[in-house]
Amino acid sequence: MAIVNSQVTVTTTSQSIVSVDNVSRDVALHAKHKSFIGNSGVTTSNGYLLDNGDKMKITLMEGEDLWAITDLGSGVLHVLRYRDWETDRKSTRLNSSHSRASRMPSSA
Asked: What is the CATH number of the domain that holds 61?
C-alpha cells in the first residue's frame, strides 16, 4: 500500500489539496480548523464543511482532484492519500481482454 501524508495550510483562497492522478485513490482528511472541501470551484457557500476536529474518508476516482478553502484566516488540514497496490494489481489482471472459460453446470 502506498501512503502519502501532508499537512496543508488552508486559506481564504481555494487551493488544491489533492491533485489529479491517473488512478483512483483513497483520501483521509482531518480538519484542525473550519474548512470547506470540493472541486476547483469550491467556496464557503458550496463546499462540504469540515469543522475543527472533523475527520472524513473519501475515494477520488481517476481524473478527480480535491480543493479546500476556509472562511476566516488560515488553518491546518491533514491529508492522507493511500492506494491499495494489491487491489490495483488484481483489477488489472481480470480486465476485458481476458476471456472467461465457460464452466459446466454443477448438476452435470
From this structure: 2.60.120.770
